[in-house]
Every structure is written in structure tokens, then in C-alpha cells.
Amino acid sequence: MAEDMTTPLLSDSEGPADALPVCLTSPTVAILGSGDFARSLALRLVASGVRVVVGSRCVNRIPSGLFPDAVELRNQEGAVSQAVCLVFMALFPEHYCSLLGLQSALAGKVLVDVSNAAEMNIHGLSNAERLAELFPNSLVVKGFNTVSTWELQTGAHDGSRQVLICSNSTEGKKKVVQLARQMGFHPVDMGGLSAAREIEVAPLRLLPSWSGPVVVTFLLFLFFYGYGVLLGILLPFLAQGHNAFYRLALDLVNESLPAVALVTLALVYFPGLFAAWLQLWSGTKYRRFPSWLDNWLQRRKQLGLLSFLGAALHGVYSLCLPLRRISLHRIVNTAYKQVKAGTEEPWDELGVWRSELYLSCGVLGLGVLSLLAVTSLPSVGNTLNWREFTFVQSGLGYIALTLSIMHTLFFGWDFAFHIEAYPFYMPPSYLLAVVLPCIVLQNLCRTDHR
Amino acid sequence: MAEDMTTPLLSDSEGPADALPVCLTSPTVAILGSGDFARSLALRLVASGVRVVVGSRCVNRIPSGLFPDAVELRNQEGAVSQAVCLVFMALFPEHYCSLLGLQSALAGKVLVDVSNAAEMNIHGLSNAERLAELFPNSLVVKGFNTVSTWELQTGAHDGSRQVLICSNSTEGKKKVVQLARQMGFHPVDMGGLSAAREIEVAPLRLLPSWSGPVVVTFLLFLFFYGYGVLLGILLPFLAQGHNAFYRLALDLVNESLPAVALVTLALVYFPGLFAAWLQLWSGTKYRRFPSWLDNWLQRRKQLGLLSFLGAALHGVYSLCLPLRRISLHRIVNTAYKQVKAGTEEPWDELGVWRSELYLSCGVLGLGVLSLLAVTSLPSVGNTLNWREFTFVQSGLGYIALTLSIMHTLFFGWDFAFHIEAYPFYMPPSYLLAVVLPCIVLQNLCRTDHR
Amino acid sequence: MAEDMTTPLLSDSEGPADALPVCLTSPTVAILGSGDFARSLALRLVASGVRVVVGSRCVNRIPSGLFPDAVELRNQEGAVSQAVCLVFMALFPEHYCSLLGLQSALAGKVLVDVSNAAEMNIHGLSNAERLAELFPNSLVVKGFNTVSTWELQTGAHDGSRQVLICSNSTEGKKKVVQLARQMGFHPVDMGGLSAAREIEVAPLRLLPSWSGPVVVTFLLFLFFYGYGVLLGILLPFLAQGHNAFYRLALDLVNESLPAVALVTLALVYFPGLFAAWLQLWSGTKYRRFPSWLDNWLQRRKQLGLLSFLGAALHGVYSLCLPLRRISLHRIVNTAYKQVKAGTEEPWDELGVWRSELYLSCGVLGLGVLSLLAVTSLPSVGNTLNWREFTFVQSGLGYIALTLSIMHTLFFGWDFAFHIEAYPFYMPPSYLLAVVLPCIVLQNLCRTDHR
């Protein structure tokens, strides 16, 4: 069924167009308004086999060809009188009151409010509720505002097909649901008209749950990248004139990403600990958490996905390392020096073990994180019950955190105890990054044992 | 709930089988026909606790054991008379008229048409509509044709669980919806009986929205691969006898894939530009686009995913390069030559910067494309509103295109200005591939500034 | 709509809280019980604008502040008498009979059973069915048991939002569906009350379809890893004192994973062959398969995904190989030896072809497996009809199997015919792994030609 809406509307050629249910004798629907939305709505309705009459205050000013030929153009009174039961209000909510004269003509009919909210934070009533106050004898239904004109014109195959609908009138809702289905959308019943506020605001949202986590992750990246520039490029350049600016593009990014991913992963499990401490401290688990903690708890999924993104990019960057020009340069010169020295390179047992271990931990950690990311897909998460969800998210989460910390510690090996690891008396960034995760992991283990 | 249909039907052992709602006293259902579909349907119905009677013209010819024991076998009249309200028509639509004698016995009952269309392009009525014409006093419901016999027998856990249903009778639809639910399927109301045409054709589809984009991508691949074979293998072999046929398996594929991915990505954004030009030229945005442009606009998602597939394969292929036997061969011989020359390899600042930059752009571009691919998953896209969808698809899309072009240009570096880059007077394939994307990107920027 | 439940409940600050539909004059709802679930339910109901009265046998013992202020606390009789039509039974099913005195007060009201099953295998009636027996004059609806207290308190944005509902009373179901929607959940109608058994067991499941395939895959891994330890580490150490223990961490894992992935992929297609043989042998396709084969057939998706996981990890591990310390060691020493020998490394045409071919087959095989994995996502699979699903799963599956076998055979090249490939007279593990897949593939081809 993925394709049933992708046929061009009103195509004049042969083909699947004749498969449209034009034979359906559906009652005439009126649209008040002649803007972009009214036009796209009319197009889709006509293509779905519905008779449409458009009502406008100044019919004569509508350019010919704006609406499809099958659409009848009338003044507002004429359009309303032709509508059997459904009237779309495709005009600005500010102009609703200009229709008060039609109150009796609209009585008993279903008025579909397709307007969006003007801003995110509405005070007072929603547009649909105000419409219901103005026309108490009509059945007001909220709907179709979440659909774009593009989706109306070409079918909803690109974005979502859902049409959110709410109304206090079961009868009205039923008719709009039926029409939405006929037009190829998936109507979703959102309950009573009080839900209109939420529906009107829906199209204005721009990933609200992501902004916080993205900002946090970005700031962490800036910090670690800046620290890396200072410690790995600027200070060596100033102190010894050592030119390593080429590291800006890839090396330093690849050094910062794992630090960011590790800290972000710890931030996923940190608020849970905080909540547990708070409950212990307040002596009851029946007190509401402060709202910042609530917000944090609700952004754990986003933080986890950003951590996965960072870890995955780090993985790909690391795998790119042998492809670099400088990598060839180093190998060749190492071989050259070995030849000059006249001996084979000696076997470095510890070095070999170190690289095998940190690579293995890294790969496995990334693998576990991928499983977590997959289960956070809505369609996969929906097949899990709460017990399974907790098992996956907590169980696999702890394993991923443990493996990531081991990856970092094996990478660091015993260098943390050598003075050379602290040029300019500053610790390497992976040591900074591993502190918070270690605290979280230690407390997670302690909490579980209790 | 992912598992409620995976219990074996009619298992004679202990276990979850006794959890089936056999106690439900549902009214007897008749199935007319004794083919594969009738049999699987009977199996599933019995397993869902429904009493089933199968009606066949020649009951005696049905091998014993074909239907489960709980099923009663009768002639057609007998079966119909036993059915309380539901009759499944599991016979070929051509034989519907042979049942005209049962017209009065079927009056008032719900007839479920489970047939598929014979071919994709139907002219005239659908099977269900013809059935409704033949039995005007019955309630005809279309449904279950999208379900395979395998899904009926073992549960729908493999493919989709949706059962598309349509009818002009609300009463009939309600009963079939209820039964479908009892059988463990997800009934989807598709509206009036005129939707039957679409439902009957649904099982015949074979990824129609993919054929065009796949063909285009494949032709592009053939072109770039063929160009590579000519320029990199055949001509050098003919001119200088240089044997590089080993490059056929991996090297040339890895050279063609990024070119294909880049051009395909440009093809995602090209039709939008075209549409904008067309609107400017015709002076109105209220003219319908030509159907080829409409089709193209509706295949952008598929083109984008194919571009991502190409880019991802290119990424993995590139990361494989150091694993090749020839890579070791080259490094060792480079070191050998260096030793012979008696000097270390000199520091190649430009070469180092070049490789750092093109690798970094490539990784980031692939990362952004992955995000785009994830949001094109239906369950993720459904959570986005139109504004968010546009933000992700356009915003991230431009970034991905820009990064891909930069990746190509950094890879090319200044070689485009050297005569050695044009052996046999033909440009390298990445130069060919970057032309269209550059045009698209330049116009995208210009369109946005206006 | 992904966000409508993430607003903190009962927040005392300004913000989106005032957008809640508090104005909705919904009838009072009673909750019997004062445990954790009752409390969370009350919180969510109040936050959704519903008037709530909680009934408890010992009201005085409830600590103040346990329930939000808007909730009225009464004894059980008082609570039931205030409830207009809905009563939540938030107490242990064992205590249902203690409410028998309220039988007449509860008559005509909707009783919502929110209990879970005590264990996976229930014999006898479900809790909801027993409740319906105890209160024959009430409308019993099963529901909300699949929702956790955490989801009730903070919104269902983490896990699933589905609320599974069933009842023999259409009226009662309708009211609960409406309330669930008002609370921000997605009610799913599961049919009659006999479905309660299944719904009560649902929260106890822990990935039942995964346990078998995971155990099989894990045992295969143990076998191949153990075989590798024996053949590659222990025997050489005992026989020649050769220390290769460093290979435990990465090398041997990377040697075992592809073997596991290959055998598991063959296990996906093996039961289908078995089923075909069985049908041929029994001479009929109308006999039910034995239950072990049925189970196996129904676990193919899980086996396929585990095979993909193994193959993907193998891919990443292999790409890590050049990053290892030992890899640098080997290259440098090869170069050193070449220099000592005084000649360039000779061109090894066969070796070059071998590596190009097995890498190419491996990358393509993994790519095809990824496509298979993507189509097994529920939201993607739902958009495919049966024909498309079979095309993808069988068609691409055979290609993936063929490519994987070619990858293995090219990797093995002609070494299988050299005696050095059999140290200690044991074949290398990839030879063991390739046997079953070859048998499966050969029979698949033969079956298709018939």
C-alpha cells in the first residue's frame, strides 16, 4: 500500500488515473477560502472523487485555471448552501468572525478547522475551540492542519500520512475520518476538541526533544576539540615550533569524538543515579523529581543516540587512518630506520596485546551500541514489552558503557603513569573523558548489588 | 505482541496451544471453495476458535485429511445454510456467476471476496464490485487477499500483518474487522468498495517505485564502470601492454561507486530545481507539472537511498584497500626504493593535507547521508511533522551534497590542471561525476538567496 | 506527536502544563487500590484532566502526599459510588472476591482489570475472565497492564505507547479506548475477553523468539572459537613452543565470527529444504510439519539477523586489522627482509587476484545482508506485499549466501589442496564452516530448477 498515493493527480493521460474512485457518488463538500491550502485541498478532493465547491468573498478575482475544472466557484453563501454536510474553513482564524452571518446556514454542518497555531505557546483557546464558540450549532472538527500543501498535491508518500483529528462530536469526527481515508490518509483520533491546542501547535515543532542533547553534545565536542588544539598543536608549535596543523582536519576530530561519545553515554545513565540518590536522601520514592531532572531523564534516548553517532563516526575515522598519506610516510620511514639500524624490529609483546585488546573492546562496544540504537527505532520498540525494553536498554547499556571504558583504559594502557603523557602538565583528553563514566559505572554496580 | 501468532496451529502437543480462545462461541463461518487458500483459511479460522463449514461442488473428491477434522465438509447449499452471517468466497472470480442459484440463500449475509486481480491494469469493475452486482442483497466485503496462504498457516510474523478491508456496508465491514482481529491480523479500513480495485492489485505489485531509480542507478554504474575499464585497463593495455586486469574486481568498482552515488544524489535535488524553473518560466505556480517531472519528484526518496547505498559500499570498499595483497606489495617496494635511494621519504605537506581533507569530508558526508537514510524509515518519518521533515531532508541533504562534492574536489586536488590527469585525452571519471552536482548545488544556493 | 507525552506531569511551573486539557469536564473515575500502580495511574489521569477518586480499605494509613492533591481519598464504597462509569481495579487479583459486597454498586459500571499473569503458563481462566465471573452485571475490560508505572508517570515516549485492550462489551471497550487516548496512549483493540489471557502474559515475555537462535549462534561461536584455540594456539604451543596467545583477543574472534555467520545463514534456508523434502517424501503438501520444524521455520528471521550481526562484526574486525601494532611490525620486517635479500618483492599475480576477489565478494555479501536486515524492520516490512517480501527475502537471501560462500572459497583459494593447510591433520575452520552452506545452496538451485 506504499504506493496508492503516488499516482499523479488529475493526470490527463491514460494509466492508473482511471483506477480512481470517480464513480463514488460522495456528497458535495465546500471549501471556504481560495488560498494555497484551499487549492491543494480541492485538488486532492477532486482526485479522490469528491464533488467540491469553493466559496470565496471575491470569486471574480480568482485567476482562471487556479482550481481544477471540476471545482465549482461560488460566493460564500452559495458554497455553504451546496455543501451537504462538510465545510472546510480554509481561511485565517482571524476572519472566522466575518462568517457570523452564515451561522444559520452552517448550523448542523461539520466545520473542519485546518488552521495552525500562530506561535508555540498559546494562551487562551485554540482556533478550533474559538470556532466552536462562534458556531455553537455546527459540529466543529479539528484536522488536516498537520498535512502540507505538498502532501495534499502529490500524496503523502514522502512524510507522514497521519491526519490528526479531534472533535467533541462523534458524528462529525466519523465523517471527517471517512473522508480522510478516501483521500488516502491515515486518520488518527486524538479525542475531544480540547486536544486541538496540541494539534494546532504540532506543525510548529522543530525537534524540541533534540535541541538540548544536541547543544550539550556540541559543547562537549567544542571543549575536547579546543583542548586537543591547545595541547596537541598550539603549545607544541609555540614551545618547539613543531608544525602539526595538518592534524586539525582528521586526527583531532577523531580524538575528540570518542571522548564526546563516552561522556554522553555516561550522561545517559547519570540522571538515573541522581534520581536514586534523591529518593534515598528524601526518604521517599513518592516525591516528584525537580523538573530539570525530569527533563534530563526524558532526553536519555536522544543522548544515547548522539553518543552512538559519535562512536560510529569515531569508528569510521579510525578505520580511515591507514588510508592517510602520512600513514604510508610513517611506515616507510620506520622501515628505513630499521634498515639503517641493521636489525629487525623487535617483538613488542605488550604493545601487541594492548592494540588487540583496545581494538576488540572498541568493536564490541560499538556493536552493542548499534543494537541499542536499533531498538530505539519506534517500530522495533513497539514490539517490545516493558520488561524486554528495560532488559535491552539497561542491560546492553551497561555492557556498552563497560566496554567503552575498557576500550579507553586499554588504549591508555600504563601511559597515565608516565610523565611523558603529561606534556605541558596537562592530561591527555581521553583521561579527562573517562572520569565521569567510571564514576557512573562504579555507582551503577553498587546500586545493583544493594 | 510480536509473538501471538507464532504458536503452531493445531499443535497436538501441550504448550501455548491451550491458550487459544477455543472457548469463544463464535458463529459458524462458511468457506466456498476447496483450494489452497480455502484450506489455509480454514486452518487459521479453526485455530482461532471459529466453527468452519467448507462448501464444495464435489465434496467427495476432497482427499481426507486435507482439512482439519474440526471442519465440516458440505455441498455449497449446505455450507451457506449453516453460515450464520459470514461466507468466504474462496473460488475463482470467473465462477462467481455459478453461484447465482444461491442468491436468496446468501441474501443478508456478508460475502468476503478474497480474490486478487488477474493483472495490474484492470479496466472495468473490480472482482468485488462484480460480486456486489451479482448479489445485490448481500453485504460484499473485500479483504484477506493481501494475506498469503503461508501467513494464514503459520502466522503473519514474517511479513506484514495488515489485512486491507473495504466495503460499502459498515455492518459487514465491522464483522470482518472483528474476525480478522480474532485471527491475529491488523485490519485496516480502506473505505468504500471502490477501493477494492486498489486492494486487488496490491498483491501483484513488485516494488514499482524502485524500478525506475534502480534502472537509472544501474545504467550510471555501467557507464562509469565501462569508462573506467576503457580508460584504466583497455587503453593502457593496448597502448603500453600494461596488465592491470586485476583492478576489475575491486578497484574499478570502488572508483565507479562514488561517481554513481554523487550523480544520483544530484538527481535527488535536480527535479526540485527544474520545478522551480518551470514555475518561473510559466509565471505561475498553479500549473500542474508534466507527468515525467511528477514521477521524478516522487522517486527522490528511492534515488536518495540508492545514493546512500552506493556511498556506503564505496566507504567499505575504500576501508578494505589496506587489506589488499597489492597494498603490502606497494608499501614494501616503496620502502625498498627509499633504502636504495639512501634517503628518508621527504615530508609532503600538501599530500598530507589533501588526504586528511578528503577523508574527513567523505566520512562526514557519509554520516550525514546515514541520518537522512534513517529518517526515511517509515516509523521514524511518522514521528516528524512537515517542518521537521523538510528541515532534515533539505537541510541535511544540502550538507551531504556539499560534503560529497568537497570530498571529490579534495580528492582531485590540483590534478585537474595537470596534463597527466588526462591520459588518452580523457578526463578521470570523478571529474565527469562532479559536473552535475556542482550545477545543482550552485543553483540551490542561488534559489535560497532569492 | 512524538512529544505530546513528555511534558512533566503536574509541574508547578509555567510552560506547556497549561496546555493540558484540564477544561475537559470528564466524569469522575475511581481507582480501587493504593499501591504503586494506583498512584501512577492517578497521577496520569489527573494530569490528563480527569477527576479521580481513590478507594482504599484503610484510607487513614495512606501517607499524605502519596497521591496528588487533586485526588480524593475515600473508602471503597465511597469511591465506587462517586465513579460515574469507570472503575480501575488496581489490586491483586487474589483480592477480587473481597469486593463481592460491592457487586450491586459496581453493576452497570466498567471495571478495568489492570493485572498481570502470575506466570507464563496459565491454566484455567485469566484474571479478567474471573473478574467477569464474579461481577456478571459489570462490563469488564482488560487493559493498561502492559503499561509500566514509569510510563504512566513520565509518558510513554521511551517504550511503546500501545495499550492493549479487550472486552466482550463494545460499550465498555469504547469508554476505555477514549480514556486511553485522552491519556496519550495508543489503544489497540484485541477483540473479546478471551484475549485477556494473552494480554496478561504479554508483560512477562522476555524475547521468547530470540532465545533459541541466540543459544544456537552462541554454541556455534564456542565451537569455532574453541577449535581455533586448539588448532591455532594450543597445539602449536605444545608442539613447537610457539607463543601466539595474543591472538585470543581479536584474531581468533575474527576467525570464528565469519564461520558462525555463514553456518547461521545456511540454517536460515535449511528448514525450507527440509520442509520440501518432507512434502516430497510424504507425497502430500497437506500434512502439518512436526513442531520442531515449525519452530525452526518461524525463527528464520532471528537466525538471519544474528547471521548479519556476525558478518557485520567480522567486517569491522577485519577492517581493524591494519590498525594493529602487529601489522606494522610485519610490514616493517617484510621490508627489512626484502632489503637484506637485495630484491624488490616480486609481483604475485595470483595472490593479488585472490585478495581482490575475496574482499569484493565479502563487501557485496555484507551489503546484500544489510538490505535484508533493513527489510526485516517491522515498519519497512509492513510496506511490502507478500510478493515483494518473498522477492527480497528469498532472492536477496540466495545472493547473500552465494556471495558469502564465494568469499570463503576465494579466501581459501587452492590452499585446501596443500598439505600445509592441515597442520596436526585438522582442516582450517573456514573449510568446516563452508560445508553446510554448500549443501544448502546446491539443493536450493536444484529445487528451483524443478
Can I get a quick summary?
3 copies of one chain form a homotrimer. Chain A is built from 17 helices and 8 strands. Chain A has 450 residues and is α/β, with parallel strands linked by helices.
Structural overview:
The first copy, chain A, has 17 helices and 8 strands. Chain A is elongated. Chain A has helices spanning 36-47, 76-82, 103-106, 127-134, 149-154, 170-182, 196-201, 208-240, 251-282, 291-298, 300-320, 325-341, 349-375, 378-381, 386-412, 429-433, 435-449, and strands at 29-32, 52-55, 72-74, 86-89, 110-113, 139-142, 162-167, 186-189. In chain A, helix 8 (208-240) runs parallel beside helix 11, helix 13 packs antiparallel against helix 15 (386-412) and helix 15 (386-412) packs across helix 17. Chain A has an 8-stranded mixed β-sheet, sandwiched between helices. Chain A folds into 2 domains: 29-204, NAD(P)-binding Rossmann-like Domain (Rossmann fold), CATH 3.40.50.720; 210-339 and 348-448. In chain A, helix 3 (103-106) links the parallel strand 4 and strand 5 (110-113). At the A-C interface, helix 7, helix 10, helix 11, helix 12 and helix 13 of A face helix 5, helix 6, helix 11, helix 12 and helix 14 of C.
